[in-house]
Design brief:
This protein is an alpha+beta fold. It has two domains: 2-154, no CATH class; 233-344, 2-Layer Sandwich (Heat Shock Protein 90). The protein has helices spanning 2-26, 34-63, 68-93, 98-103, 110-164, 168-182, 187-204, 214-229, 257-266, 309-321, and strands at residues 212-213, 238-244, 250-251, 276-283, 286-294, 326-333, 336-344. The strands form two sheets. Strands 2-4-5-7-6 form a five-stranded mixed sheet, covered by helices on one side. A two-stranded antiparallel sheet has the order 1-3. The chain is elongated.
Length: 348
């Protein structure tokens, strides 16, 4: 709330300063009535607000980096067209030229036209420059805050990992020993142990890096699907489909597993059996995850009393690592729970 209040205060102060400056120049002529000042402000300020906030909220964050040519063309176009449009509107409502008032030039002179054009062009430049300063200031403070939060989450994750680690070498060696005993009895059980070992190795070692290759994340999920498939009768209903254009694309680790775990956890049985379908597609640095599980709205079972902490954490990670570069939707269609997550992995 403190940050939001500070932003509001800064913006109100900025516009108050502009208003005071404008009223000062308007009221140099002491014979003018207050109604003229009110009309001048009501006509001029909406244009200033539109200029400032269109650049602050849209053109600068959306176009400056990724569509720089379009940004430049739009800026130049506004710089050229705004003065002409504003002069026409001022003439229509009866607002006189400030330059004519201050230096006594006739309003129909060529010189006055260009003075008015330049003054309004400077208004455009002032508001665009102010939008630049405000946008970069806000982004700088936000990035500092996000970096601080990400570091905090990283330290918390490392601490939780250290607390939960019971000598991973011991665990892997034990699993290998069990596998050598089980292999003679059941090849399927041996395969399950090796997949579990691979999952644990990924979680304990590779997932500690800030980013991993997306094919590593997919291999991890495939092992998870394989283990889940072993416990159901209709194995064909448990499927993970993948299509990676660039397997080396970097992604934050453990980003998909909470959604997959949630699907298996809450999948309800149908006449055919439990169904969980996953699909991961990566194309041009944009990845899309779709997870579908069978869902019966009449079977309301509380399977997780922790309140979905894993999902809350991954949603927060998405906000920190991929701000304004991800979208997520959840819907129920034909007794199926459908989750769709899209992430743009390309840095702007």
């Amino acid at each position: 709330m403190k940050e939001k209040t500070l932003k509001i205060f800064a913006q109100v102060s900025y516009w108050l300063v502009q208003l005071i400056v404008v009223l000062f120049f308007i009221n140099i002529n002491e014979e003018r009535e207050i109604s003229y000042s009110i009309i001048w402000v009501l006509i001029s300020f909406p244009f200033k607000l539109i200029l400032f906030y269109s650049f602050f909220y849209y053109f600068i964050p959306k176009w400056l980096n990724s569509k720089s040519l379009r940004f430049a063309l739009v800026s130049i176009g506004i710089l050229m067209l705004y003065p002409l449009l504003k002069m026409k509107i001022d003439d229509w409502v009866g607002i006189e030229s400030l330059d004519a008032l201050l230096i006594g030039i006739e309003s129909d002179s060529t010189l006055n036209f260009w003075l008015e054009f330049i003054r309004r062009a400077l208004t455009v430049l002032l508001n665009i420059a102010s939008a630049f300063i405000a946008r970069f200031t806000v982004d700088w403070f936000r990035n500092r805050q996000l970096a601080s939060q990400m570091e905090k989450y990283r330290l918390q994750s490392e601490l939780a990992l250290l607390r939960n680690q019971i000598n991973p070498h011991f665990l892997f060696n034990t699993l290998n020993n069990i596998d050598s005993l089980v292999y003679k009895v059941s090849e399927e059980a041996s395969d399950a142990i090796m997949k579990l070992s691979a999952i644990m190795r990924y979680m304990l070692y590779e997932s500690t890096a800030p980013f991993v290759q997306i094919n590593k994340e997919v291999e991890y999920l495939q092992s998870y699907f394989d283990l889940e498939r072993m416990r159901v009768k209709r194995k064909d209903l448990i499927e993970l489909e993948t299509n990676l254009e660039n397997p080396m694309t970097q992604i934050a680790p453990m980003m998909f597993i909470p959604f997959v775990e949630n699907a298996f956890k809450h999948a309800t049985s149908t006449p055919e059996g439990i169904k969980v379908y996953g699909k991961i597609v990566e194309l041009s640095g944009k990845v899309e995850l779709t997870v579908i599980n069978s869902f019966d709205s009449e079977m309301i079972i509380q399977k997780d009393k922790t309140g979905g902490i894993g999902l809350q954490n991954v949603k927060r990670r998405l906000e920190l690592i991929y701000p304004e570069r991800h979208s997520m939707s959840v819907e129920i269609l034909n007794n199926e729970y459908v989750l769709n997550l899209k992430i743009d992995l390309n840095e702007n």
